[in-house]
Every structure is written in structure tokens, then in C-alpha cells.
Design a protein that fits this description.
α2 packs antiparallel against α3. This protein is an alpha+beta fold. The chain is rod-shaped, with a radius of gyration of 39 Å. The chain has three helices and 26 strands. It folds into two domains: 215 residues, no CATH class; 122 residues, Jelly Rolls (Sandwich). Helix content is 15%, strand content 43%.
Length: 426
């Protein structure tokens, strides 16, 4: 697609002649390199190397395309001044795109390709592309960077204007493949006689407009460009390190808390649930001591139930003040042939319980199934529990996960224009 020519410093020369088809004046701006030139009036393709400027192809009833960058306009891209010398419209199965040939006497040629308002600047490469073959390769590598196949098809020349360093005619066709690793892309065009690889870089439409000083706004950008970089992916990469650091710190605090927690058993008791009378009375446990600093307590109960439930209406009462803290506990367990739901055990944690002497008042209620056995109850002081840690983990992951799904949505939109999307099922 692009030929790199390292030339010596030359004075710009413009060669003029009259078109043999319509008599209009034709100018050649890149003298010495131009092989074909297109008459600006009748669009006849002329052999620029022929002494008589032989017409290679006459085009009649051809649809007129207006290039966004006018021919012979000059603009600075990547710190170099380029002149737009050629304009080509190509198509594949009703899908059209525009290519602009740029020339710099010291740098040679570049291709500026516009597809649906997205721009990529290409330079021909001569270094081998790894993993490429005549059979369609899903992935290739260039300078150790991996590129994924985005599109392949037949690129057919539909319209030409300007001058070119190779023989070009309307109707010329080549096999074309595009591989991407945004913001870069690799493009290859294959004909009977040659295979040309080019490396491209995405350029913003506003940059193109400013560089070539075009008054009209650039073509409207539709969707996500083939090589358009994802600003969301950059944000995602930036938040990975803080997220991992926060998770490591949180895990460390959780481990320290687990080591320092006393997890002391302060009460345990068994209560009969074998008769209806056991569910009619209020049970008062023995008194027990909660010592040390103000901390949490965990009440844990286990009941011999199956396809039923048990509800313990428990109140923790301070012996001295007779003030109570409700600690209701519900246990339910159901099981079928190949399924089960619930558990025969349940726990409840109460925070900020001051030291002192306490007892429990219990009122038990049951489901329709009659229970036989003992309801086991225990209370532990200063315990660790994972729910707070899990909540903290969720809060830490919330932002990165939201950014990840936004980044994924961006990529799904990009690959929606490809036949080789890794998100085919979406």
C-alpha cells in the first residue's frame, strides 16, 4: 500500500501536459516516482512514463466522489509535512472506504485510510510478519506484538484521482486482510505477483482536519473504529494496581483480626424440643459472664429439623440493669430427592455488647413437623466474621468491575463490524 523512498534533497518540480482524451491540462507533482496520473476533468488514467502520455483507461458514467482532503493539499502528521497526491475509493461487497496517498520527498509515501469516519495512517513495512501464511491466519505477530484478524475480503478499486507510483486502474482487485492491536493495525494486500504489508496507527478525525486545514467537518464517525484506542481500557489498567493493593491490605487486616480475636465461649446450653409443652414455656438460661472490653457476640443455634423450621425469640438481658437486647434466631431446613435448602444451624452477630453478667430469655416456635431432640445454643464473645470483609471486597471491586464492563462493551461495539469477533454470541 505504501512505498518508502529515502531520497536526497530535491527541488519540487511540476510537469504539465494536455490530456489526449479531453485536452484538459494535467499536472504531475511527484516527477520521477509517478507511474499513473488521472486527468482531473475526464478521469482518464494516463501512463505518466509514456513519452506520449498514453491513456490506459477511459472512464465513462463513473460515479463522482469528492475527497475530504483536496488533492495537492499539504498537512503535517507525526511531525512531517505531507502532500495529498492521490485519492482512491475501494469497495468490497457493497462496503466502501477511502484511501489518500500522501507524499514527502524525504520520507516517501504513506496511506491515509478513512473508514466510517475513522482514520488510520499506514506505512509499508519490509520486516517479516510472523505467523502469516497464504491460508488465513487468525493471529500474526510483528516486532513481538500480537495482532488479531479483523477483516478479510476482496478490495476492488472503484474510483481514482491524482497520481500514483504504481499502475492503477478502476476494477483492479486484490485480497485484503486487516489485523488489529489498537491503536495499531496491520494490513496486507495480495495479488498474483506480490504481497504488501503495511503498519497503521489510528489518528483522530480532528487531527486530520487541523493538519490539512480543511474547513468542512470530517466525515461522521460511526461506531468504534477498527484501530480506535479504548480510553476506558486505559482507565481500567490504571485502577488495577490500586484495586490489588486495597485487596492485599484488606486481607492482611482480616488475618490480623482473626489472630487477635478471642472467640471465647461464654455460654452453651441444650433445650428439649421433644414435646408440645417445650414450645409453650419461656426458657430462662443460667447467668453467664461477658468480660473484657465492649465487643461483639455471636449466638449460634442447632436444631434437629427436617422439612420444617424453628424460631427462637431470644432476648439477652443484663442482670444489673434488666435491659434487654433482642436476638431473634430462625432455622429452617428442607430436603427432597436431589435437592436441599437451608440448614439445621443458624447464627446471629450483635455488635457493641458491653461487659457484664447476662442471661437469655427464650421462647421457641416450630413448624408443622414435630421435633424430637435438643436445641443446642451457644454464645461466643469477640468473634471474627466474613460478611464485613465480603462487603468491603465488593465495594473495592465495584469501580473496576463497572469499568471492565464498559471496556468490554466498547470492544463488543468495535468487533461488531468484524466476521471474526471473539464476542460472536453477544
Amino acid at each position: 500500500m505504501a512505498l518508502t523512498i529515502k531520497g536526497t534533497k530535491v527541488k519540487p518540480v511540476v510537469k504539465s501536459f494536455n490530456c489526449l482524451s479531453c485536452g484538459s491540462p494535467v499536472k504531475i507533482h511527484v516527477v520521477g516516482h509517478t507511474l499513473n496520473v488521472v486527468c482531473p476533468s475526464c478521469k482518464a488514467i494516463i501512463d505518466a512514463k509514456d513519452p506520449n502520455f498514453r491513456i490506459i483507461q477511459k472512464l465513462t458514467n463513473q460515479k463522482k466522489y469528492t475527497p475530504y482532503i483536496p488533492l495537492n493539499n499539504k498537512g503535517k502528521l507525526k511531525g512531517k509535512l505531507w502532500e495529498c497526491t492521490g485519492f482512491v475509493v475501494k469497495s468490497d461487497s457493497g462496503y466502501y472506504w477511502q484511501e489518500y496517498l500522501l507524499y514527502n520527498p524525504y520520507e516517501g509515501y504513506r496511506w491515509l485510510v478513512e473508514v466510517n469516519g475513522h482514520w488510520v495512517l499506514y506505512k509499508k513495512i519490509y520486516r517479516a510478519v510472523e505467523d502469516a501464511s497464504s491460508v488465513i491466519s487468525q493471529r500474526v505477530r510483528y516486532k513481538q506484538k500480537k495482532f488479531r484478524l479483523f477483516n478479510d475480503g476482496t478490495a476492488r478499486v472503484t474510483y481514482v484521482e491524482g497520481e500514483f507510483y504504481w499502475r492503477i486502474k478502476a476494477g483492479n482487485a486484490s485480497l485484503a486482510r486487516d489485523y488489529i492491536a489498537p491503536p495499531e493495525s496491520l494490513s496486507v494486500e495480495i495479488t498474483k505477483n506480490e504481497e504488501n504489508w503495511s503498519l497503521g496507527i489510528h489518528i483522530d478525525a480532528e487531527t486530520i482536519q487541523k493538519a490539512f486545514k480543511v474547513e468542512n467537518p470530517p466525515p461522521y464517525s460511526m461506531g468504534v473504529g477498527m484501530a480506535q484506542p479504548s480510553p476506558i481500557k486505559e482507565k481500567l489498567q490504571k485502577c488495577i494496581k490500586p484495586m490489588l493493593t486495597s485487596l492485599v491490605v484488606l486481607f492482611g487486616l482480616w488475618v490480623i483480626r482473626g489472630i487477635t480475636a478471642s472467640n471465647k465461649l461464654v455460654h452453651q446450653s441444650y433445650h428439649s424440643v421433644s414435646s408440645e409443652e417445650d414450645f409453650k414455656k419461656t426458657i430462662k438460661t443460667e447467668e453467664f459472664e461477658i468480660s473484657g472490653r465492649t465487643s461483639n457476640i455471636r449466638i449460634h443455634g442447632t436444631a434437629p429439623i427436617l422439612n420444617s423450621w424453628l424460631y427462637a425469640d431470644a432476648i439477652l438481658i443484663d442482670v444489673d440493669s434488666q435491659k434487654g437486647i433482642p436476638i431473634p434466631l430462625e432455622i429452617s431446613y428442607y430436603r427432597g430427592g436431589d435437592w436441599s435448602e437451608g440448614s439445621r444451624s443458624s447464627s446471629r452477630i450483635i455488635n457493641n455488647v458491653p461487659p457484664g453478667r447476662y442471661y437469655l430469655n427464650l421462647k421457641l416456635q416450630k413448624g408443622p413437623t414435630f421435633l424430637r431432640g435438643n436445641f443446642y445454643l451457644e454464645i461466643r464473645r469477640d468473634v471474627t466474621f466474613s460478611s464485613n470483609m465480603f462487603m468491603a471486597v465488593i465495594l473495592i471491586l465495584l469501580g473496576p468491575l463497572f469499568t471492565f464492563f464498559r471496556s468490554r462493551s466498547f470492544e463488543v461495539s468495535r468487533w461488531s463490524n468484524s466476521d471474526y469477533s471473539p464476542y460472536q454470541s453477544e
